[in-house]
């Protein structure tokens, strides 16, 4: 009998939502002070100016530009230049580094909000104002109304919540004048691990690695694929492909490893660690690193302090957050929490963002694909109806990756499982240190949204599969990650069904 989804959908996590209209500003512009990290520690704006980065070069890295934030006169001039040359190659504006600075000052570079740090009422990064990072950097694209670069960057009106699959985060970081300040989220070689390294690169970085060494790692697409971001401060090179942030009421638990149950707690961890990694040198940050990695976690914190001193980084940490009564809990992994009202407002906005319409597909093929999706066992993990929340269980690694044969790299105190790794696979690297055992769950994968799949260029969180056709092809083998296969017309039909999925019941 065909099934519409797993019989046990898992527990639904309660969520409190604030004001969605205020949440939009949080999503687009809120930094909670992290502009200090990106401007004074990583020195991304300084690196861009020193390199003479043009808007065309920014767009080539997948960065999105908000047309509505550009003043009317500049818009008119830009459109005239693009009408004369739609490729943008001869556009004076798009090939002038001064335009990049002007776009930053206009808050037109999406996800890089500028703040009036010197409080003179004007936005000017050249006169002391600082540039931070917001959720929109990875989770907004534009409609390309004015221009779309072949590499994926575009100029147009914001489409919040969509994953930016073309964002070259590694190359963006490499432009910074002090990429060494990103040490906790690089692939490292630690003394506590006897110099061994885990990740895509054959060797790891150390506290003595030069800026050139770090930039070479970040710029290497084999080590840091386009469309991905290393979001775990564990010293592993475990970049994860960018995910959407629309309809987050359907998406719990959060993180591909399912470590966090509540949406606002997920956002708080992002703001208090990833958007300002110097927070990891605080008492709460060190406690979390020690819990996750023991001596290796302690070493990361100690080495990071040395790097910050060597590169003359001062005044950290930068993010403004309050002490929390339950340090180390999911509510405050680092013992602090940013403005809770704004976190709840962000909840409301992320819930309100509609999922895109499914692709236009052959109705007959999609209908057959729907039947196959149910009868072939796909509904053991996934729902047919994408207007339902995804099943909230974490799928054990042995189920999602039969070839998982991990060795123990380090013991850990329960409920955390030991640090485990399967050699010659990038799929389990993300779950080696940071995984759902933090909350007593299994090491494995949380269920993804099966939405906006037509735009998705790669599959599985580690970018290891290049298409839906490859994902469902038995040539990948019985022990590969996600080894659930279909042949011939059945595979073609299911792909048609998946590409047409949306939350309107199609």
TrEMBL record:
Domain Cytochrome c: start-end pairs: 123-222, 364-502
Which UniProt keywords are present, listed alphabetically? Heme, Iron, Metal-binding
Top-rank taxon, per record: Bacteria
Q: Which InterPro entries does the record associate with it? A: Cyt_c-like_dom, Cyt_c-like_dom_sf
Q: Where is this region: Disordered?
A: 1-27
This protein's name = Cytochrome c domain-containing protein
Source species of the chain: Lysobacter koreensis
């Amino acid at each position: 009998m065909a099934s519409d989804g797993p019989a046990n959908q898992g527990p639904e996590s309660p969520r409190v939502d604030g004001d969605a209209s205020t949440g939009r500003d949080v999503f687009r512009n809120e930094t909670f002070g992290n502009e200090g990290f990106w401007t004074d520690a990583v020195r991304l704006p300084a690196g861009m100016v020193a390199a003479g980065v043009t808007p065309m070069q920014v767009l080539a890295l997948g960065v999105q530009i908000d047309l509505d934030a550009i003043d009317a006169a500049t818009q008119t001039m830009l459109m005239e230049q693009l009408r004369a040359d739609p490729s943008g190659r001869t556009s004076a504006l798009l090939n002038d580094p001064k335009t990049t600075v002007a776009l930053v000052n206009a808050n037109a570079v999406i996800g890089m909000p500028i703040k009036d740090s010197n409080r003179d009422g004007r936005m000017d990064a050249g006169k002391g104002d600082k540039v931070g990072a917001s959720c929109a950097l990875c989770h907004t694209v534009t409609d390309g109304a004015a221009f779309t670069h072949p590499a994926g960057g575009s100029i147009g009106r914001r489409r919040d919540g969509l994953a930016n699959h073309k964002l070259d985060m590694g190359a963006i970081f490499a432009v910074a004048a002090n990429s060494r300040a990103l040490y906790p989220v690089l692939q490292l070689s630690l003394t506590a691990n006897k110099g061994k390294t885990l990740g895509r690169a054959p060797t790891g970085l150390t506290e003595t690695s030069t800026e050139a060494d770090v930039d070479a790692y970040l710029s290497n697409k084999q080590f840091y694929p386009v469309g991905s971001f290393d979001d775990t401060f564990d010293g592993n090179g475990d970049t994860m492909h960018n995910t959407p942030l629309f309809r987050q009421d359907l998406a719990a638990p959060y993180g591909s490893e399912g470590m966090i149950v509540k949406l606002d707690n997920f956002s708080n961890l992002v703001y208090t660690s990833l958007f300002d990694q110097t927070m990891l040198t605080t008492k709460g940050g060190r406690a979390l690193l020690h819990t996750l990695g023991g001596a290796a976690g302690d070493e990361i914190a100690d080495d990071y302090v040395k790097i910050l001193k060597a590169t003359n980084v001062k005044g950290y940490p930068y993010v403004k957050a309050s002490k929390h009564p339950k340090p180390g809990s999911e509510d405050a992994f680092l013992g602090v929490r940013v403005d809770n009202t704004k976190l709840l407002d962000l909840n409301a906005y992320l819930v309100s963002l509609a999922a895109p319409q499914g692709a236009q597909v052959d109705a007959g093929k999609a209908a057959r694909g729907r039947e196959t999706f149910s009868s072939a066992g796909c509904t053991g993990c996934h729902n047919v109806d994408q207007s339902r929340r995804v099943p909230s269980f974490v799928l054990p690694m042995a189920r999602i990756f039969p070839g998982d044969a991990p060795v123990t790299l380090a013991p850990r105190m329960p409920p955390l499982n030991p640090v485990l790794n399967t050699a010659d696979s990038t799929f389990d690297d993300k779950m080696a240190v940071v995984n759902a055992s933090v909350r007593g769950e299994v090491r494995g994968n949380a269920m993804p949204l099966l939405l906006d799949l037509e735009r998705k260029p790669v599959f599985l969180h580690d970018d290891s599969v290049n298409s839906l056709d490859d994902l469902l092809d038995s040539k990948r083998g019985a022990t590969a990650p996600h080894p659930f296969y279909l042949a011939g017309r059945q595979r073609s039909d299911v792909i048609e069904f998946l590409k047409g999925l949306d939350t309107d019941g199609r």
